[in-house]
Specification:
Elements lengths: L5 H8 L3 H9 L6 H14 L5 H8 L4 E6 L5 H16 L3 E6 L4 H14 L3 E5 L18 E4 L10 E5 L1 H14 L5 E6 L4 H16 L6 H4 E4 L6 H11 L5 E4 L2 H13 L9 E6 L12 E4 L2 H16 L7 E5 L2 E3 L6
Parallel strand pairs: 1-2, 1-3, 3-4, 4-5, 5-11, 6-7, 6-8, 8-9, 9-10
Antiparallel strand pairs: 10-12
Helix pairs in contact: 1-2, 1-3, 5-12, 7-8
Length: about 325
Protein backbone atom coordinates (compact mmCIF):
# COMPACT_ATOMS: atom_id res chain seq x y z
CA UNK A 1 0.00 0.00 0.00
CA UNK A 2 1.37 3.40 -0.96
CA UNK A 3 2.48 5.73 1.83
CA UNK A 4 0.81 9.01 1.01
CA UNK A 5 2.34 12.34 2.00
CA UNK A 6 0.52 15.52 2.85
CA UNK A 7 1.46 16.79 -0.64
CA UNK A 8 -0.29 13.79 -2.18
CA UNK A 9 -3.43 14.50 -0.15
CA UNK A 10 -3.40 18.13 -1.28
CA UNK A 11 -2.99 17.15 -4.93
CA UNK A 12 -5.81 14.59 -4.86
CA UNK A 13 -8.15 16.98 -3.02
CA UNK A 14 -7.24 19.85 -5.32
CA UNK A 15 -6.23 22.18 -2.49
CA UNK A 16 -2.99 23.55 -1.10
CA UNK A 17 -0.79 21.78 1.45
CA UNK A 18 -1.56 24.64 3.84
CA UNK A 19 -5.30 23.97 3.51
CA UNK A 20 -4.83 20.26 4.26
CA UNK A 21 -2.80 21.23 7.34
CA UNK A 22 -5.51 23.64 8.50
CA UNK A 23 -8.21 20.97 8.10
CA UNK A 24 -6.16 18.35 9.97
CA UNK A 25 -5.42 20.75 12.82
CA UNK A 26 -8.94 22.26 12.72
CA UNK A 27 -7.29 25.64 12.70
CA UNK A 28 -7.79 28.56 10.33
CA UNK A 29 -10.35 29.34 7.65
CA UNK A 30 -11.79 26.82 5.19
CA UNK A 31 -15.26 25.92 3.99
CA UNK A 32 -17.28 22.97 5.20
CA UNK A 33 -17.16 21.58 1.65
CA UNK A 34 -13.35 21.75 1.68
CA UNK A 35 -13.17 20.10 5.08
CA UNK A 36 -15.35 17.20 3.94
CA UNK A 37 -13.37 16.80 0.71
CA UNK A 38 -10.00 16.67 2.50
CA UNK A 39 -11.23 14.29 5.19
CA UNK A 40 -12.72 12.00 2.54
CA UNK A 41 -9.38 11.85 0.69
CA UNK A 42 -7.61 11.10 3.97
CA UNK A 43 -10.05 8.27 4.64
CA UNK A 44 -9.84 6.90 1.08
CA UNK A 45 -6.04 6.88 1.03
CA UNK A 46 -5.54 5.67 4.59
CA UNK A 47 -3.23 8.63 5.20
CA UNK A 48 -1.67 8.61 8.65
CA UNK A 49 -0.25 11.71 10.23
CA UNK A 50 3.01 11.67 12.10
CA UNK A 51 1.46 12.68 15.42
CA UNK A 52 4.77 12.53 17.27
CA UNK A 53 6.28 15.14 14.97
CA UNK A 54 3.12 17.22 15.14
CA UNK A 55 3.08 17.11 18.93
CA UNK A 56 6.73 18.12 19.18
CA UNK A 57 6.22 20.95 16.72
CA UNK A 58 3.18 22.35 18.52
CA UNK A 59 4.30 21.42 22.07
CA UNK A 60 0.98 19.61 22.46
CA UNK A 61 0.12 16.01 23.25
CA UNK A 62 -3.57 16.37 22.30
CA UNK A 63 -4.40 14.39 25.43
CA UNK A 64 -6.42 15.33 28.52
CA UNK A 65 -6.22 13.74 31.96
CA UNK A 66 -9.48 13.14 33.85
CA UNK A 67 -9.29 12.45 37.59
CA UNK A 68 -12.40 10.75 38.98
CA UNK A 69 -12.86 9.36 42.53
CA UNK A 70 -15.09 6.39 41.65
CA UNK A 71 -15.72 5.42 38.04
CA UNK A 72 -18.47 3.00 39.11
CA UNK A 73 -20.57 5.93 40.40
CA UNK A 74 -23.43 6.64 37.98
CA UNK A 75 -22.99 10.42 37.94
CA UNK A 76 -19.20 10.31 37.60
CA UNK A 77 -19.33 7.62 34.89
CA UNK A 78 -21.89 9.58 32.88
CA UNK A 79 -19.90 12.82 33.05
CA UNK A 80 -16.65 11.04 32.12
CA UNK A 81 -18.28 9.35 29.13
CA UNK A 82 -19.72 12.64 27.88
CA UNK A 83 -16.38 14.41 28.40
CA UNK A 84 -14.54 11.70 26.47
CA UNK A 85 -16.96 11.97 23.55
CA UNK A 86 -16.83 15.77 23.48
CA UNK A 87 -13.03 15.93 23.68
CA UNK A 88 -12.62 13.19 21.07
CA UNK A 89 -14.72 15.25 18.66
CA UNK A 90 -12.25 18.10 19.22
CA UNK A 91 -9.23 15.90 18.44
CA UNK A 92 -8.18 15.03 21.98
CA UNK A 93 -7.68 11.63 23.57
CA UNK A 94 -8.42 11.16 27.27
CA UNK A 95 -6.53 9.40 30.05
CA UNK A 96 -9.09 8.40 32.69
CA UNK A 97 -7.64 8.02 36.18
CA UNK A 98 -9.79 6.38 38.87
CA UNK A 99 -8.34 7.55 42.20
CA UNK A 100 -10.56 5.37 44.44
CA UNK A 101 -10.93 8.43 46.70
CA UNK A 102 -7.24 8.11 47.65
CA UNK A 103 -5.14 11.29 47.84
CA UNK A 104 -1.98 9.20 47.53
CA UNK A 105 -3.25 7.60 44.33
CA UNK A 106 -4.37 11.00 43.06
CA UNK A 107 -0.88 12.45 43.56
CA UNK A 108 0.67 9.47 41.76
CA UNK A 109 -1.68 9.98 38.82
CA UNK A 110 -0.87 13.70 38.70
CA UNK A 111 2.86 12.91 38.48
CA UNK A 112 2.16 10.40 35.72
CA UNK A 113 0.00 12.84 33.76
CA UNK A 114 2.67 15.53 34.05
CA UNK A 115 5.21 13.04 32.74
CA UNK A 116 3.00 12.24 29.77
CA UNK A 117 2.73 15.93 28.97
CA UNK A 118 -1.06 16.15 28.93
CA UNK A 119 -2.42 19.45 27.68
CA UNK A 120 -4.94 19.83 30.50
CA UNK A 121 -6.73 18.24 33.43
CA UNK A 122 -10.35 17.82 34.45
CA UNK A 123 -10.76 17.06 38.15
CA UNK A 124 -14.08 15.58 39.28
CA UNK A 125 -15.15 15.73 42.94
CA UNK A 126 -13.04 14.90 46.00
CA UNK A 127 -12.87 15.54 49.73
CA UNK A 128 -10.00 18.03 49.76
CA UNK A 129 -9.74 21.36 47.96
CA UNK A 130 -7.76 20.67 44.79
CA UNK A 131 -4.34 22.22 44.30
CA UNK A 132 -2.03 21.61 41.37
CA UNK A 133 1.22 23.35 40.52
CA UNK A 134 2.71 22.42 37.16
CA UNK A 135 5.37 25.15 37.21
CA UNK A 136 8.08 22.49 37.47
CA UNK A 137 6.87 20.76 34.29
CA UNK A 138 8.01 21.39 30.74
CA UNK A 139 4.78 23.31 30.19
CA UNK A 140 2.03 24.82 32.33
CA UNK A 141 -0.94 22.47 32.51
CA UNK A 142 -4.34 24.20 32.89
CA UNK A 143 -7.16 22.47 34.75
CA UNK A 144 -10.85 22.81 35.55
CA UNK A 145 -12.70 21.44 38.58
CA UNK A 146 -16.11 19.76 38.54
CA UNK A 147 -17.83 19.57 41.95
CA UNK A 148 -14.53 20.12 43.73
CA UNK A 149 -13.49 23.42 45.23
CA UNK A 150 -10.09 24.58 43.95
CA UNK A 151 -7.68 25.73 46.64
CA UNK A 152 -6.68 28.71 44.51
CA UNK A 153 -9.73 29.92 42.58
CA UNK A 154 -7.67 32.35 40.51
CA UNK A 155 -5.89 29.37 38.89
CA UNK A 156 -8.90 27.62 37.40
CA UNK A 157 -12.60 27.43 36.53
CA UNK A 158 -15.03 25.74 38.94
CA UNK A 159 -18.08 23.98 37.49
CA UNK A 160 -20.81 22.52 39.66
CA UNK A 161 -24.43 21.49 39.83
CA UNK A 162 -26.46 23.62 42.20
CA UNK A 163 -26.37 21.01 44.97
CA UNK A 164 -27.76 23.44 47.51
CA UNK A 165 -30.80 24.15 45.34
CA UNK A 166 -31.45 20.44 44.78
CA UNK A 167 -31.26 19.53 48.46
CA UNK A 168 -33.36 22.52 49.51
CA UNK A 169 -36.12 21.76 47.00
CA UNK A 170 -36.12 18.04 47.83
CA UNK A 171 -36.46 18.75 51.55
CA UNK A 172 -39.15 21.35 50.94
CA UNK A 173 -41.07 18.76 48.92
CA UNK A 174 -40.92 16.26 51.78
CA UNK A 175 -42.25 18.88 54.19
CA UNK A 176 -44.89 20.09 51.71
CA UNK A 177 -46.14 16.52 51.28
CA UNK A 178 -46.71 16.19 55.02
CA UNK A 179 -43.42 15.00 56.52
CA UNK A 180 -42.97 16.41 60.03
CA UNK A 181 -39.70 14.60 60.81
CA UNK A 182 -37.52 14.65 57.68
CA UNK A 183 -34.01 13.20 57.72
CA UNK A 184 -30.94 13.44 55.48
CA UNK A 185 -29.11 10.16 54.80
CA UNK A 186 -25.44 10.31 53.82
CA UNK A 187 -21.99 8.86 54.32
CA UNK A 188 -19.53 10.81 56.43
CA UNK A 189 -18.35 12.77 53.40
CA UNK A 190 -16.43 16.02 53.09
CA UNK A 191 -16.82 16.62 49.37
CA UNK A 192 -18.02 19.98 48.08
CA UNK A 193 -21.29 18.51 46.84
CA UNK A 194 -22.00 16.71 50.13
CA UNK A 195 -21.44 19.89 52.14
CA UNK A 196 -23.73 21.90 49.87
CA UNK A 197 -26.49 19.28 50.01
CA UNK A 198 -26.33 19.14 53.80
CA UNK A 199 -26.50 22.95 53.93
CA UNK A 200 -29.54 22.97 51.63
CA UNK A 201 -31.27 20.39 53.83
CA UNK A 202 -30.58 22.38 57.00
CA UNK A 203 -31.78 25.66 55.50
CA UNK A 204 -35.02 24.05 54.29
CA UNK A 205 -35.66 22.84 57.85
CA UNK A 206 -34.91 26.30 59.21
CA UNK A 207 -37.30 27.94 56.74
CA UNK A 208 -40.04 25.61 58.00
CA UNK A 209 -39.27 26.24 61.68
CA UNK A 210 -37.68 22.83 62.28
CA UNK A 211 -34.54 22.97 64.43
CA UNK A 212 -31.80 20.72 63.03
CA UNK A 213 -30.50 18.26 65.63
CA UNK A 214 -27.81 15.87 64.40
CA UNK A 215 -28.97 12.72 66.19
CA UNK A 216 -32.56 13.32 64.99
CA UNK A 217 -32.08 14.61 61.45
CA UNK A 218 -28.79 13.14 60.22
CA UNK A 219 -28.60 9.45 59.35
CA UNK A 220 -24.89 8.72 58.86
CA UNK A 221 -24.23 5.49 57.02
CA UNK A 222 -21.03 3.47 56.94
CA UNK A 223 -19.19 3.10 53.65
CA UNK A 224 -19.02 -0.59 54.51
CA UNK A 225 -22.34 -1.95 53.24
CA UNK A 226 -22.20 -4.78 55.78
CA UNK A 227 -22.97 -2.22 58.51
CA UNK A 228 -25.72 -0.52 56.52
CA UNK A 229 -28.73 -2.43 57.96
CA UNK A 230 -27.53 -1.91 61.52
CA UNK A 231 -27.00 1.82 60.91
CA UNK A 232 -30.59 2.20 59.72
CA UNK A 233 -32.12 -0.03 62.40
CA UNK A 234 -30.33 1.82 65.21
CA UNK A 235 -31.29 5.23 63.87
CA UNK A 236 -34.97 4.32 63.40
CA UNK A 237 -35.09 2.72 66.86
CA UNK A 238 -33.95 6.03 68.34
CA UNK A 239 -36.12 8.10 65.97
CA UNK A 240 -39.33 6.13 65.34
CA UNK A 241 -41.22 9.19 64.06
CA UNK A 242 -39.09 9.59 60.90
CA UNK A 243 -41.51 10.02 58.01
CA UNK A 244 -39.32 11.32 55.20
CA UNK A 245 -35.75 10.85 54.00
CA UNK A 246 -33.69 12.93 51.62
CA UNK A 247 -30.85 10.70 50.45
CA UNK A 248 -27.66 12.40 49.37
CA UNK A 249 -27.51 10.12 46.32
CA UNK A 250 -29.63 7.53 44.54
CA UNK A 251 -27.38 4.63 45.53
CA UNK A 252 -28.13 5.19 49.21
CA UNK A 253 -31.80 5.80 48.39
CA UNK A 254 -32.05 2.46 46.57
CA UNK A 255 -30.36 0.68 49.48
CA UNK A 256 -32.82 2.33 51.86
CA UNK A 257 -35.74 1.31 49.66
CA UNK A 258 -34.56 -2.32 49.66
CA UNK A 259 -34.20 -2.23 53.45
CA UNK A 260 -37.69 -0.80 53.94
CA UNK A 261 -39.25 -3.39 51.64
CA UNK A 262 -37.51 -6.17 53.53
CA UNK A 263 -38.76 -4.81 56.87
CA UNK A 264 -42.32 -4.04 55.71
CA UNK A 265 -41.99 -0.26 55.87
CA UNK A 266 -44.32 1.10 53.19
CA UNK A 267 -42.93 3.79 50.88
CA UNK A 268 -44.49 6.32 50.45
CA UNK A 269 -47.47 5.80 52.80
CA UNK A 270 -45.35 5.38 55.96
CA UNK A 271 -42.18 7.09 54.83
CA UNK A 272 -41.40 9.23 51.79
CA UNK A 273 -38.04 9.04 50.01
CA UNK A 274 -36.12 11.31 47.62
CA UNK A 275 -32.70 10.62 46.11
CA UNK A 276 -30.15 12.67 44.19
CA UNK A 277 -28.69 11.98 40.68
CA UNK A 278 -31.81 10.52 39.02
CA UNK A 279 -30.11 7.29 37.99
CA UNK A 280 -31.85 5.01 35.52
CA UNK A 281 -32.31 2.34 38.23
CA UNK A 282 -34.65 4.55 40.22
CA UNK A 283 -37.10 4.64 37.33
CA UNK A 284 -37.65 0.88 37.54
CA UNK A 285 -38.01 0.30 41.29
CA UNK A 286 -41.30 -0.28 43.07
CA UNK A 287 -42.20 2.39 43.95
CA UNK A 288 -40.31 4.48 41.40
CA UNK A 289 -37.85 6.87 43.03
CA UNK A 290 -38.22 10.64 43.23
CA UNK A 291 -34.84 12.25 42.72
CA UNK A 292 -32.87 15.38 41.89
CA UNK A 293 -31.61 15.29 38.30
CA UNK A 294 -28.23 16.77 37.43
CA UNK A 295 -27.66 18.08 33.91
CA UNK A 296 -24.60 15.98 33.06
CA UNK A 297 -24.66 17.07 29.42
CA UNK A 298 -24.37 20.74 30.32
CA UNK A 299 -21.73 20.05 32.98
CA UNK A 300 -19.52 18.12 30.55
CA UNK A 301 -20.03 20.68 27.78
CA UNK A 302 -19.02 23.54 30.10
CA UNK A 303 -15.99 21.61 31.35
CA UNK A 304 -14.69 20.66 27.90
CA UNK A 305 -15.28 24.15 26.50
CA UNK A 306 -13.65 25.83 29.50
CA UNK A 307 -10.56 23.61 29.45
CA UNK A 308 -10.01 23.89 25.70
CA UNK A 309 -10.32 27.65 26.06
CA UNK A 310 -7.56 27.64 28.69
CA UNK A 311 -5.38 25.34 26.58
CA UNK A 312 -5.72 27.71 23.63
CA UNK A 313 -5.18 30.71 25.92
CA UNK A 314 -8.62 32.07 25.12
CA UNK A 315 -10.50 31.51 28.39
CA UNK A 316 -10.67 33.62 31.54
CA UNK A 317 -9.66 32.09 34.88
CA UNK A 318 -11.23 32.64 38.30
CA UNK A 319 -14.77 31.78 37.20
CA UNK A 320 -17.60 29.69 38.61
CA UNK A 321 -20.25 28.04 36.44
CA UNK A 322 -23.34 26.86 38.34
CA UNK A 323 -25.60 24.39 36.55
CA UNK A 324 -29.26 24.21 37.71
CA UNK A 325 -30.81 20.91 38.81
CA UNK A 326 -34.36 19.58 38.47
CA UNK A 327 -36.51 17.83 41.07
CA UNK A 328 -38.20 14.82 39.46
CA UNK A 329 -41.19 13.54 41.45
CA UNK A 330 -42.24 9.90 41.21
CA UNK A 331 -44.10 7.36 43.34
CA UNK A 332 -41.79 7.38 46.39
CA UNK A 333 -43.16 10.78 47.48
CA UNK A 334 -46.79 10.55 46.36
Amino acid sequence: MKNYSIKDIAAIAGVSVATVSRVINDNGRFSEETRKKVLQVIEDTGYKMNYTAKNLRMNKSFSIGILVPDISNYFFATVVQQLEESLFDKGYSTIICNTSRSLEKERAYLRMLEGKGVDGLIVISGAEAFEFDSSGSDKKIPYVCIDREPKIKADTIFISSNHYQGAFEATEELIRSGCLHPVIAMHNQKSTSAKERLKGFKDALKKNNIVFVSHKHLLTLSLDEAHFPQNIASFLAENPTVDGIFSINDLIALQLLAYFQKHDVSVPSQLKLIGFDDTISGQYTTPTLSSVRQNTTLISEHAAEALLGLINKEGALNREIMVPVTLVLRESTR
